[in-house]
Design a protein that fits this description.
CATH class of the largest domain: Mainly Alpha
Strand content: 15-25%
Shape: globular
Radius of gyration: 22 Å
Helix content: 40-55%
Largest sheet: 4 strands, antiparallel
Number of strands: 8
CATH topology of the largest domain: YacF-like
CATH superfamily of the largest domain: YacF-like
Order of helices and strands: EHHHHHHHHEEEEEEE
CATH architecture of the largest domain: Orthogonal Bundle
Number of domains: 2
Length: 272
């Protein structure tokens, strides 16, 4: 395939219908980390707002995953590094024709404010749960299959019997150190996703291949396909090219089959 035009900066995505499924492929470990954190944070927020004890159980399990991930990787440092990189690249856009200078200035100001807030945040992200015996006991027991049963953790069983408002308040207290990080992740990924120009392309016999212009720092590939086509993409990407192979999931009892028909889809390659 030929090289392609990335379109104007912040071209944004075309309006997608509710029946469209979007799949993303990160091209760097930092982007992979941010996408994982984004997914976990969205799950936590949804579950914590639902009032049932089962929902709050799920919210707490997700929070355990968030802090486990944050304990293995310095999320705040990686996030600040990405914001600094975006600011530097946005600054270079100022000299290019066709760029909305006012919008670009506002964007960079917002990025710098967010960077400053991350720099000013004092203490580790796990400061609220570090040394908390209740949280630690839950994290230790849930590492075992079925380890959060009432006979294993009677205090947890008691907590789940408390009013929903009290449970939600504790969950949000434990999440509070992550508030700025969560906002920064949302902003960074929003800019990243909007930095590509969506194009309508076709995977012939369920297969598409594209070269990547190495003059750009690519971060993310997005593939949007109509749900009624009853297929999903597997994206394989390197530094110079990527491929998209569409598969038919069938009835989920047998191995997915490679699609042998043309599949129209929307492709967005994001670089900022």
């Amino acid at each position: 395939m030929d090289m392609f035009d990335t379109g104007p900066p912040f071209a944004g995505l075309d309006a997608l219908t509710e029946s469209t499924l979007t799949f993303e492929q990160p091209l760097h470990e930092r982007v992979r980390l941010l996408l994982r954190m984004e997914t976990l944070i969205e799950r936590f927020r949804q579950a914590s707002l639902d009032g049932r004890d089962f929902d709050h159980h799920h919210a707490l399990m997700v929070l355990v995953d968030i802090y486990s991930l944050a304990g293995r990787v310095d999320v705040k440092r990686e996030l600040m590094g990405e914001i600094e990189r975006q600011i530097a690249n946005l600054n270079r856009l100022a000299t290019q024709p066709g760029v909305d200078q006012e919008r670009l200035t506002l964007t960079m100001q917002g990025q710098r404010r967010l960077l400053g807030r991350l720099e000013d945040q004092v203490g580790a992200l796990d400061q609220r749960i570090k040394g908390n015996e209740f949280f630690t006991s839950i994290r230790q027991r849930t590492a075992l299959p079925g380890g959060a049963c009432d006979f294993d953790l009677p205090i947890y069983h008691y907590w789940l019997s408390q009013p929903a408002a009290a449970r939600e308040a504790l969950l949000l207290e434990w999440f509070q150190p992550l508030d700025t990080v969560a906002e920064a992740i949302t902003q960074v990924l929003t800019f990243m996703r909007a930095a590509g120009a969506p194009r309508h392309v076709t995977g012939h016999d369920g297969y598409y291949e594209q070269s990547l212009d190495t003059n750009y720092a690519w971060q993310l590939i997005r593939v949007s396909v109509a749900a009624d086509l009853q297929c999903y993409p597997e994206i394989s990407a390197g530094r110079q090219r990527f491929t998209v192979r569409f598969l038919d999931p069938g009835d989920f009892h047998e191995r997915p089959r490679i699609v042998a028909r043309d599949i129209p889809f929307q492709l967005t390659c994001c670089a900022i």
